[in-house]
Specification:
Number of helices: 5
Number of domains: 1
Helix content: 25-40%
Largest sheet: 8 strands, mixed
Number of strands: 8
Shape: globular
CATH architecture: 3-Layer(aba) Sandwich
CATH topology: Rossmann fold
Oligomer: single chain
């Protein structure tokens, strides 16, 4: 885990509270603003095999499944996954959940049409390793959509005071969200909102991971 990231212990401790918070409609910003915008951004996922990374207790996974996607959810927190699995027994949406870090998705092979992650990547382990794993588990020309908090709208002086082990750290939040692509050519589309950034990566060439090199990066800003 990187310094300042929120890991398994953090989210295990927050699992019950978080599940109640989102399931009782208290996450108003997500319900009324960020999630509807994200769903519009990703487009039609009906019939697609979707990996929801950082799925937590499965709130968004269930929404993706109700849109017709075949969903697999992964999260680093076993407590969150347990809550998601318990809810799946009730809703019977056909979602599979697994405990895993997005830097090690070795449970999965090259099988997903879409990888999704909503407001998670900025709080977890190595962003670069995560992108490599997302690339590996996607089908050729598969899509990666994710959202992260917009660094321009974090409170001034915002820092992570402690890492997951309680060790003091003054590492500031990263301000450069453009990935250093040490892997295949990609198209990046950026859709900035007031406080979040949506990004879409389309990997155009699927070569062996051991022979991935940086190529031209094409960016497009949505109005």
């Amino acid at each position: 885990m990187t310094k300042g990231s929120k890991g398994e212990g953090f989210w295990n401790n927050k699992a019950e509270f978080w599940a109640q918070f989102v399931r009782e409609g208290m996450d108003v910003f997500r319900d009324l603003y960020s999630l509807p915008a994200f769903l519009g951004f990703i487009g039609d996922i009906h019939g697609k095999k979707v990996l929801d990374v950082g799925c937590g207790e499965g709130y968004n996974s269930r929404i993706f499944a109700r849109q017709g996607a075949k969903v697999v959810g992964v999260d680093i927190s076993k407590e969150m996954i347990q809550l998601a699995q318990e809810e799946e027994k009730k809703t019977k949406l056909g979602i599979q959940y697994f405990t895993a870090s997005w830097t090690d998705l070795s449970l999965f092979k090259n099988k997903f049409d879409v990888v999704l992650s909503t407001l998670a990547l900025m709080d977890g382990p190595s962003y670069e390793d995560a992108l490599k794993e997302f690339y590996r588990v996607l089908k050729p020309s598969g899509d990666l959509f994710f959202s992260v908090t917009h660094p321009c709208f974090l409170p001034p002086g915002y820092v992570n005071l402690k890492d997951i082990n309680g060790v003091s750290t003054h590492q500031k939040k990263p301000t450069n969200l453009t990935p250093d692509l040490s892997h295949p050519q990609a198209i990046i589309e950026c859709f900035p909102l007031t406080s979040i950034i949506f990004l879409k990566l389309v990997f155009l060439s699927k070569k062996s991971e051991s022979h991935c090199h940086p190529k031209k990066l094409v960016s497009k800003i949505h109005d």
